[in-house]
């Protein structure tokens, strides 16, 4: 089968070996595995982080988000059958989705939204799972009536779906941050009640909108840079959730306000085969239903063409600028 791989970490994307086309043996399903024929994939920051930092002993297939068709199933599969259209975000500890065929556990797989194309659906799984888990499992917002949520980096992949979930499924006042005018408009279109510029002081901008403090913060990017500001603007006994990788994080400043700190990593359930691993199957099915009934919309921003090494190198380059909006998707081999 066709696949795109890398073997040496940190190569510049101008080097053809940073991601290159190859042929690999087609995998075979067992246990809870689905063998999926890949139709479309999307690219996430985690793809670029792994390519830059992890030196594999043999050529490694990156990629997690995918949409495709089930071709065969393992002997323990009960949730899907061959021919079913699915979407999912995969596992950190298995080969990725930059390939014609891919194995994924049925318990972290959802049915593809019927109203979306494969490319539109491929934009959703990783960010939807991250946003849902952060909002409801980690921050535990509940109904959210009378409370507020600040989303730092609301225009990115996770932010684009988190803004929708919070504005449509809760009573929260949703404040998103974005710096460029076009991204600010994007965040407003996704349902944010207010948008502020993360290049400017948070407290002054919030005060100008009549907001004294925020109850919940979802810090999706550059937490190191905004940490002190976030503590300053948070309501006592608020909840701070984050998904990025600060170089260091001192929790002591949170004590005075009794702010609780919550990490979200959507790969945790599959990494540890947790008892509630199948919850991701349920969440993805819920996302599909919300898409199909018009509550949510895809966050696809750019269709980058066929799934090739050259197009993936360009997609990685775009992600690494830190200026991408929504999701970058590739389709077909």
Automatic annotation (TrEMBL):
Its main location: cytoplasm. Keywords: Acyltransferase, Cytoplasm, Metal-binding, NADP, Oxidoreductase, RNA-binding, Transferase, Zinc. Residues 14-330 form the Enoyl reductase (ER) domain. GO terms for cellular component: cytoplasm. Pfam families: ADH_N, ADH_zinc_N_2. SMART domains: PKS_ER. One of its GO terms (molecular function) is oxidoreductase activity. It comes from the Bacteria. InterPro entries: ADH-like_N, ADH_Zn_typ-1, ER, GroES-like_sf, NAD(P)-bd_dom_sf, Quin_OxRdtase/zeta-crystal_CS, Zinc-ADH_QOR/CCCR. CDD domains: AL_MDR. It is found in: Cytoplasm. NCBIfam families: adh_fam_1. Homotetramer. Belongs to the zinc-containing alcohol dehydrogenase family. Quinone oxidoreductase subfamily. This is Zinc-type alcohol dehydrogenase-like protein.
